[in-house]
């Protein structure tokens, strides 16, 4: 079983049944590398630790990205446990109980004075949300269709007379930039990302 980090809003979306997909920037980003593919099977330049692209030696010399799923952090069938913003529930006298920011934060835990902790520090025993990976693929973030933005948890009610055919994508774009722009993976840079489809499962699911 592998960990996956989710934001507070992501966790709420999963628990509400709105979010069944996540996009994660590929690190490092694929780079164009001059690779002569003799048999069409060269996928990765392990010696240089860089993603490889196929360059077809032909008069027009066109390029296409290799299929990268074999290097994805998750595979179809993987069981995941979600790391989220958390802390020990001080109102429960430290009896191995945990508080989760996605549940309502201070409003739900008024007597808990401990600070919220980063999802990165969350131990597996504190996890309460578990997922099963259904599919993994590679896309550029700007290629996201409206239906995928909805699966990411963005369901904007534009109304039947709306002139905005991509309301969900617009909301997704704002959220993406809020999380990734300062790290160099903003929407305008159109980074490649892992597209992970998943379903929620019960704790104790077979790993």
In summary, what is this structure?
With 207 residues, the chain is of the alpha+beta class. 14% of the residues lie in helices and 25% in strands. It is globular, with a radius of gyration of 20 Å.
Beta-strand portion reads: 15-25%
Biggest sheet, strands in spatial order? 1-7-10-11-2
Helix content, binned percent: 10-25%
What is the ordering of alpha helices and beta strands?
Answer: EHEEEEEEEEEHHE
Instruction: Specify Rg, calculated over alpha carbons.
Output: 20 Å
Mean residue pLDDT: 78
**DSSP, total strands:** 11
Which shape, going by the Cα principal axes? globular
Poorly predicted spans: 34-67, 159-163
N→C terminal distance: 6 Å
Largest sheet: 5 strands, mixed
Q: How would you classify the helix and strand content by structural class?
A: alpha+beta
Can you offer a commentary on this structure?
The structure is a single chain. The protein has 3 helices and 11 strands; from the N terminus they run βαβββββββββααβ. The strands form 4 sheets. Strands 1-7-10-11-2 form a 5-stranded mixed β-sheet. Strands 3-4 form a two-stranded antiparallel sheet. A two-stranded antiparallel ribbon has the order 5-6. A hairpin with a 4-residue loop joins strand 3 and strand 4. The chain is an alpha+beta fold and 207 residues long. The radius of gyration is 20 Å and the shape is globular.
């Amino acid at each position: 079983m592998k960990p996956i980090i989710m934001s507070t809003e992501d966790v709420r979306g999963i628990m509400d049944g709105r979010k069944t997909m996540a996009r994660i920037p590929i690190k490092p980003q694929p780079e164009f590398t001059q690779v002569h593919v003799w048999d069409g099977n060269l996928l990765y330049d392990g010696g240089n630790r860089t993603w490889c692209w196929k360059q077809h030696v032909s008069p027009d010399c066109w390029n296409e990205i290799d299929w990268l799923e074999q290097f994805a952090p998750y595979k179809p069938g993987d069981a995941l446990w979600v790391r989220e913003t958390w802390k020990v529930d001080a109102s429960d006298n430290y009896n191995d109980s945990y508080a989760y920011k996605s549940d309502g934060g201070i409003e739900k835990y008024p007597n808990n004075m401990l600070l919220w902790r980063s999802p990165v520090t969350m131990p597996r025993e504190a996890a309460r949300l578990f997922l099963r990976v259904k599919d993994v693929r590679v896309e550029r973030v700007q290629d996201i269709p409206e239906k995928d933005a909805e699966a990411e948890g963005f369901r904007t009610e534009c109304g039947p007379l709306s002139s905005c055919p991509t309301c969900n994508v617009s909301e997704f774009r704002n959220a993406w930039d809020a999380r990734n722009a300062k790290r160099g993976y903003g929407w305008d840079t159109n980074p490649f990302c892992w597209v992970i489809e998943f379903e929620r499962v019960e704790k104790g699911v077979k790993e």
